[in-house]
Amino acid sequence: MVVASVSWDFSLVGCTSLKEKRSVVRSLRDRLVRTFKVSVAETAYQDVHERAQLTAALVASDGRVAESLLDRMDAFVEEHSEARILRVHKERY
What we know:
It is a single chain. The protein is of the alpha+beta class. 40% of the residues lie in helices and 38% in strands. Strands 2-3-1-4 form a four-stranded antiparallel beta sheet, covered by helices on one side. It is elongated, with a radius of gyration of 13 Å.
């Protein structure tokens, strides 16, 4: 069994308030949860309206399955995000 996570740091150019930022972040978080059945949380920059960090965590039967799912989630975020991705960090435990 493998536990894995992926974190994305985003630049939210054009967000002028925390309310607007949270709308963008919540939308992406909900789509990730619905599509991939993973746990997702906003993990940094909660009080900064032009930055965000989302982290997704999962448990898989083996490392290949986990890595495949992390790669699919990363591609999904690149395709469906309204924000610019600054950094991606993947870990397996």
